[in-house]
Amino acid sequence: MQDATPLPAIVLKDLQKYYPPPRTGIRAYLQPFERATRPALQGVTFEVQEGEAVALLGANGAGKSTILRILATLLIPTRGQAFVAGHDTAKDPRAVRRKLGYHAGSDQGFYPRLTGRQNLLFFGQLNHLTRAQAQNRIAELGEQFHLTDALDQQVRTLSSGTTQRLSLARALLHKPTVLLLDEPTRSLDAIAAAEFRRFLAKEVLRGARTCLLFASHALSEIEQLAHRVAVIHQGQLAAFDTVSGLLARTKTANLEQAFFQLTGSVNLFERFEHLDHKDRPQ
Amino acid sequence: MKNWRELWLYFWRDLMIAKTYRIPFVMDAMQALFGATMFFYAARFVDSPQLRSELPQPGGYFAFALVGWVFFDYLGVAMDTFDQSLVEARDSGTLEHLLVTQTSLPLMLAGSAIYPFLITTLRIAIYLVWGALLFHFPLGAANWIGVIVVLAASLLSFSGLGILSASYLLLFKRGNPAKWLLIGLWGIAGGMLFPVTILPDWLQLIAKLNPMTHALNAMRAALLGGAGLAQLLPAIELLLLFAMVLLPLSMLVFYWTLERTKATGTLSHR
């Protein structure tokens, strides 16, 4: 009898990533051949199901972007494996890329002298949409993300928030089954961020059954979007549970307190709380 | 079919970007005029019956030097274009987004080279047209099929070196000193502005081993001497042999380098 259980959309198995130490001057020539000794990920294991949204929560440098970049086939793990829709990211990256939509938090990556529409047409067709399909999808997403006016302007003239919306539209153009978003609402104003979250929840997660893995520092965003949260601390998985599960486990009242507790920053948190009360204007 | 479409997409991208800069087109045409004028007067100054007797093809020193200069420019583009595409993609942040699409690496490299090659072809044509219109550059004898075949064989062989140079840049994040050394040496021992027969013996030996010498000789023979394909065949075979070794080797090295930068996490580092 055949097993009808669908494959998890994302699987991380004992994922480890080490980087070589940074070098400058003449020693920089040796860096590509140096042993990777600086840990970024130390054995992270979890699964994300189809239609599920999982948030990566962690301090700066915890390893969230490293996980996303390994899944996007931009990094090769040192040890362990990562799978997207059953395909190993290191062994079969082209099959992985067929399933992916990726938005990088730091670098929007557009051709500044092309218009938003030209950029989206280019990337959409590289993802094997026909020109007509790409044009229809651009019109659809342009309306959804309030980009209609911006689409015909050169990207270099757009604000950082608009460029970010354009980048999110690019990630969704070819209707990927797995969506990786690194700080998706970082440069967005409150209204645009709320609209984007609504769009993700309604159209992407419920409508298209897309799997979403996103890194965010916005706790309200995580509470609103994520079915489960992967708390990453110093390259390790500190916890992987629903928001309510994390609160119950840590016996805390909100996600911020739970995060501090799980990452061992509780003393720091209490100090901040104390300072906050003392320094608050009367 | 899909591959052709992707190649077209890269060309379309570069064409659209170039359209936003209009003045460089005009400046290129003017630069070609100034270049052709400079070579014409330099040739008038140095030309003599003795010099003409040293040159392998008719047309005098002006034709010899102009072909050497513009063709050297062409092969320089083959060496530079992959580096430049890589640097632009890395600096604009598009490199990672290209690598996340479903396009393949060879298509990405080939696609990024189409526009620079075509625009350089156009620049060369402008040089030759200025030369022919104003300074009697002899185009009448040219074997154009021979010119195209030599050009294609040379581009293939020199592109391999260009991809190797891009691999170096990707790995070490800085310009490749070997490339500059090679281009400098080719300029001297390649017969760009003077026949290699006037060089000392040891430099003539380097010239014989230098594919640039063979490419330039074949190009002059086809363009100025109207040499047929049979006469050009030895040089074409040599250039294709060079391409058959260098292109697969350079692609392998580029793949390895890309994997290495993905392992070290330095793909987008500058």
Question: What distinguishing features does this structure have?
Answer:
heterodimer, A: 282 residues, alpha/beta, Rossmann fold, four-stranded antiparallel sheet, 10 helices, B: mainly alpha, 11 helices, 0% strand, globular
Helical amount of chain A:
25-40%
Would you identify the CATH architecture of one domain in chain A? 3-Layer(aba) Sandwich
The CATH homologous superfamily of one domain in chain A: P-loop containing nucleotide triphosphate hydrolases
Distance between the termini of chain B: 35 Å
Low-confidence stretches of chain B: none
Can I get a quick summary?
Chain A contains ten helices and ten strands. Chain A is of the alpha/beta class. Chain B contains eleven helices and no strands.
Task: Provide an overview of this structure.
The complex is a heterodimer of chains A (282) and B (270). Chain A is an alpha/beta fold. Chain A is built from 10 helices and 10 strands. In chain A, the strands form 2 sheets. Chain A has a 6-stranded mixed sheet, with helices on both faces. A 4-stranded antiparallel sheet of chain A has the order 2-1-4-5. In chain A, helix 3 (116-126) crosses helix 4 (131-144). The radius of gyration of chain A is 20 Å and the shape is globular. The termini of chain A are far apart. In chain A, 44% of the residues are buried. Chain B is built from 11 helices and no strands. Chain B has one domain. The radius of gyration of chain B is 20 Å and the shape is globular.
Topology, please?
The complex is a heterodimer of chains A (282) and B (270).
Chain A: E1 10-19, E2 38-48, E3 53-57, H1 64-71, E4 79-84, E5 87-88, H2 93-97, E6 100-103, H3 116-126, H4 131-144, H5 160-172, E7 178-182, H6 190-207, E8 211-215, H7 219-225, E9 228-233, E10 236-241, H8 243-250, H9 255-262, H10 266-279
Parallel strand pairs in A: 3-8, 3-9, 6-7, 7-8
Antiparallel strand pairs in A: 1-2, 1-4, 4-5, 9-10
Helix pairs in contact in A: 3-4, 3-5, 8-9, 9-10
Chain B: H1 2-19, H2 23-46, H3 49-54, H4 60-92, H5 94-99, H6 105-135, H7 144-172, H8 177-188, H9 201-209, H10 211-223, H11 229-264
Helix pairs in contact in B: 1-6, 2-4, 2-6, 4-6, 4-7, 4-10, 7-10, 7-11, 10-11
